[in-house]
Amino acid sequence: MLEILVMVSGGGTNLQAIMDAIDAGTITNARIKGVLSSSRSAYALERARAGGIPADSLSRADYTDEQEYHQALLERIRQMDVELIVLAGYLGILPGELVRAFAHKIINIHPSLIPAFCGKGYYGLRVHEEALARGVKVTGATVHFVDEGTDTGPIIFQKAVAVGREDTPRTLQKRVMEEAEWVLLPKAIDGIANGKIRVAGNRVVVDAETEMEE
Ligand code: GRF
């Protein structure tokens, strides 16, 4: 049974997609052991509690400096004793020591087709604003392993979403979440939980039957 920590910062719709997939059996061999938010007011915490999942927050604002905050985060995560960390709308920066200790055991969902519209400052609605401003015809989402860069780790799955002529940043964000994010994250977790996804160098090897359908 893969024990998972889900880290959140906001509404928690990706967390909800994971919870629903476990309940529906589309994710097997995995359990959310806990949810940790970077914000005490994140609605994601309500979702976790409603699902009977232990949920807590650790906010940078509660610490005098980043070093102290990172130490507290490291200790909390180590105490939880999990095998996979899922960043689901998590906006904080993870300490390098944690990323190294959890090499290829942290995954993130990003609302674009990496390497487009990613990197420092590209999160939330801004990703979709930039995609519309650039006039792309196709965008989507990417689930990837986390390395010490920003949105630079090995890519696991991507899913394309067509940009509509009438799309606003909000309508595009909603469709990318519904059609791509909420599909990719559960699929990646199920693949990892069932040994179907491995990392070879900087590429991810996925068993044929687990590959995204065309
Ligand atoms: C959304 O912008 C989503 O695209 C990105 O994180 C934000 C919040 O997601 N992955 P969630 O509803 O908190 O999962």
Q: What can you see in these coordinates?
A:
- This protein has 214 residues and is α/β, with parallel strands linked by helices.
- The chain has six helices and nine strands, in the order βαβαβαβαβαββαββ.
- The strands form two sheets. It has a seven-stranded mixed sheet, covered by helices on one side.
- Helix 1 crosses helix 6 and helix 5 crosses helix 6.
- The model has no long low-confidence stretch (mean pLDDT 96).
| Overall spatial form | globular
Range of strand content: 15-25%
Q: What order do the SSEs take from the amino end to the carboxyl end, as H and E?
A: EHEHEHEHEHEEHEE
Largest sheet: 7 strands, mixed
Number of helices: 6
Overall mean pLDDT:
96
Q: What bound compounds does this protein have?
A: 5-O-phosphono-beta-D-ribofuranosylamine
Low-confidence stretches: none
First-residue to last-residue Cα separation: 30 Å
Number of extended strands: 9
Q: How are the strands ordered across the major sheet?
A: 3-2-1-4-5-6-7
- Residues in helix, %: 25-40%
**Structural class, from helix and strand content?**
alpha/beta
The whole-angstrom Rg is 17 Å
